[in-house]
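User: Design a sequence. Structure:
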């Protein structure tokens, strides 16, 4: 009964606060709405687990997860370095840069477009469950195999989005540059790449989450004694669900912050795009 009454009170307060923040256009108000909603969900989670006495082995309370996160901060920090900095980041860079360069090559060659695009579709359709153990056998148990899986997962979204973006430049603008005898590099740098930036950033944001998923899943199939995927696998086998959820929380926050940082960078770089113009 105590948790029910507190939940009702907290829900009313949260709804009033979110309604007030939605009416405002400031950055603080836009950030407040998801923050309040997130806190409300956490409270409901805590109240349901405690109120209905849900066993921790099924679903630990948020308070238990944060306690496990604090108690195992050093271990989880080492796992973060292994997974994110040593596996995700190199694979993300290789996949995104490789996909971008392949898109430029395909843009110049119909032969490559007919040959590489079907192969790209084939690679993108391959399940990560199948790629990960093969990568471990090829590149070993270190970060190299995880980076290879990440690169395989991220190269095709960048390839497809860049090709689509390069086709966004207007025909009249391209004909104007041709009338000035502009070369392909000039047309690419001055017109077509700027027009493609929204598509490129869309691929970068999509890949920021795909890369984390790929690295974590790849660690299930072989890893040194570090890594967030390794930690999730081993602690789940030991029924330490609070540590499992703490590792999941780190992965989720990392993906969300990466996506948000890329979104802010996109807004700064493509401020001229119609989607960012104020209709008023």
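Assistant: Done.
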């Amino acid at each position: 009964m105590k948790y029910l009454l507190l939940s009702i009170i907290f829900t009313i307060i949260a709804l009033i606060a979110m309604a007030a923040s939605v009416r405002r256009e400031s950055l603080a108000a836009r950030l407040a709405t998801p923050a309040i909603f997130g806190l409300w969900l956490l409270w409901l989670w805590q109240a349901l687990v405690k109120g209905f006495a849900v066993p921790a082995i099924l679903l630990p309370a948020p308070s238990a997860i944060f306690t496990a996160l604090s108690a195992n901060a050093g271990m989880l920090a080492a796992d973060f370095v292994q997974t994110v900095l040593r596996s995700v980041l190199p694979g993300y860079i290789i996949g995104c840069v490789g996909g971008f360069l392949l898109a430029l090559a395909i843009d110049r060659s119909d032969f490559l477009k007919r040959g590489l695009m079907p192969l790209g579709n084939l690679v993108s359709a391959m399940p990560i469950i199948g790629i990960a153990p093969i990568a471990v056998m090829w590149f070993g148990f270190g970060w190299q195999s995880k980076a290879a899986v990440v690169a395989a997962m991220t190269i095709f979204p960048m390839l497809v989005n860049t090709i689509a973006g390069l086709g966004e430049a207007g025909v009249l603008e391209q004909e104007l540059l041709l009338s000035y005898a502009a070369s392909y590099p000039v047309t690419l740098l001055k017109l077509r790449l700027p027009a493609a930036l929204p598509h490129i950033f869309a691929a970068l944001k999509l890949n920021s989450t795909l890369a984390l998923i790929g690295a974590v899943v790849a660690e299930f199939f072989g890893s040194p004694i570090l890594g967030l995927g390794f930690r999730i696998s081993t602690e789940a086998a030991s029924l330490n669900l609070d540590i499992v959820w703490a590792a999941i929380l780190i992965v989720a926050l990392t993906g969300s912050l990466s996506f948000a940082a890329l979104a802010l960078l996109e807004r700064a770089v493509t401020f001229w795009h119609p989607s960012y113009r104020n209709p008023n």
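The chain has two domains: 2-54, 67-276. The first helix runs from residue 2 to 22.
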